[in-house]
Write a structure and sequence with these properties.
Number of domains: 3
Strand order of the largest sheet: 3-2-1-4-5
Structural class: alpha/beta
Oligomer: single chain
Helix content: 40-55%
Number of helices: 17
CATH architecture of the largest domain: 3-Layer(aba) Sandwich
Number of strands: 11
Shape: elongated
Strand content: 5-15%
Mean pLDDT: 89
CATH topology of the largest domain: Rossmann fold
Radius of gyration: 25 Å
């Protein structure tokens, strides 16, 4: 197999990488040179635990790097953590992570590959559930694995040090996780392992275990942690600040448009292939236009250019500052039982709550007082919280950026 020049590969593969310089960079260069000379692709590992139904944009940061390795002709090895998910990764956690049952893991794992395939060419990847080898582990095997580290080294990791200082519990089973992840690298003979910066300890354990097994140690290539839509915490399902790969184009676009301006450079660098100079130019311009370009890039990648074009057109139509605002062409329907309507009308508070534009009637009252709710072609706003709204099939209701069309059952 022929590969692109090593310098070309190195420039692309190290872009955006964190904690990656000096000896590790030289090691990667040597591995790439050896691969280039021998025609043998590198084995590049990325592991993901099926802890929920949604793969989100945060997961795609290392996945996109894995795709770049693939595009250069190297072998992507996807480890589906069917065994490690039962333990729970303590990386970046200030409390013990809840392990999952076998049934939950199997159910989640079924959806993961379909979503990962939106980023990586799964048909050309090597997919390995780590339950494949850990299910065969004996007690003696586990003792041997545990013998490769010390408690002193384990509690040196930043996550555990913080917990000790805070008086938070550290459970013994959590100490298994980095050893299990490291053993995955031994099993598949990884040349490179990808992960977020919080994964560095686990990746380095893999290097130690490979040396002990007589293998050449893997390169640890970590990527920055993507902050979620709140602009503060790591993107995650438990925090609710994520954008899932399975979300509709409209939702992806809308959520991206609502991110803080401070996230623009970070998201462009980690979620798009735009050159650095171009990103700098875009971010230096108007934030709203920059967000449109970012949102369009994201939707294009996961839904195609056609969906991106339609979404941008709908957004401009709805939120353009020039001329009267218009509703988008595609509006989601919300169904209301006809018997909820009395004499062709409904209290505005009840209508908002019934359509779930707000989570409660209390919030609905506040939104009416703020003037945030309107309805119909004339965008009529209720006079007060006791006002009624004439409701017919097809009525369009709006609250902020939420727009729904009422359908009567």
């Amino acid at each position: 197999m022929s590969f692109p020049p090593v310098d070309e590969q190195l420039a692309v593969l190290t872009r955006g990488a964190a904690q990656f310089d000096g000896s590790m960079r030289e090691e990667l260069k040597k591995k790439l040179e050896k691969s280039f000379t021998s025609g043998k692709p590198l084995r590049v590992k990325y592991g993901i635990d099926p802890t929920g139904f949604d793969v989100h944009l945060g997961h795609t940061v290392p996945l996109r790097k894995l795709r770049q390795f693939q595009e250069f002709g190297h072998t992507a090895v996807l480890i589906i953590g069917t065994a490690t998910a039962a333990v729970g990764d303590p990386s970046g956690r200030d409390a013990s992570r809840q392990g999952l049952t076998t049934e939950q893991i199997d159910k989640n794992a079924q959806t993961y590959l379909t979503q990962i395939a939106k980023v990586v060419d799964v048909s050309k990847a090597e997919v390995r559930p780590n339950g494949e080898w850990f299910s065969k582990f004996t007690f003696a095997d586990m003792l041997k694995l545990l013998g490769h580290t010390t408690m002193q080294r384990m509690i040196e990791r930043d996550d555990f040090t913080k917990r000790i200082k805070a008086g938070a519990a550290i459970y013994l089973h959590e100490c298994l996780y980095p050893l299990m992840q490291g053993h995955d690298s031994v099993e598949i003979r990884a040349d490179v392992e990808l992960g977020g910066t919080e994964q560095l300890y686990n990746l380095m354990v893999g290097r130690d275990l490979q040396r002990a097994a007589g293998q050449e140690p893997q390169i640890c290539l970590t990527m920055p942690i993507l902050r979620g839509t709140d602009g503060e915490k790591k993107m995650g399902k438990s925090v609710g600040n994520y954008i899932g790969l399975n979300e509709p184009a409209k939702d992806m676009f809308g959520k991206t448009m609502r991110i803080p301006d401070a996230l623009l450079k970070e998201w462009f660098e980690l979620l798009t292939d735009r050159p650095e100079a171009e990103i700098a130019s875009i971010v230096a311009g108007h934030p709203n236009e920059a967000k449109k370009m970012l949102a369009s890039d994201i939707v294009t990648f996961y839904h195609g250019p056609g969906a991106a074009g339609e979404t941008v057109a709908d957004w401009n139509k709805q939120f353009s500052n020039s001329g009267a605002k218009q509703d988008p062409d595609n509006i989601d329907d919300v169904r209301i039982p006809a018997d909820k309507i009395k004499d062709g009308a409904m209290l505005a508070v009840d209508l908002i709550a019934e359509t779930k534009l707000t989570a409660s009637k209390g919030e609905a009252r506040r939104k009416i007082e703020e003037g945030a709710f309107n309805y119909g072609p004339d965008r009529t706003k209720p006079a007060d919280v006791k006002a009624t709204v004439p409701v017919a099939d097809g009525l369009v209701v709006r609250l902020g950026r939420k727009i729904l069309r009422v359908r009567l059952n």
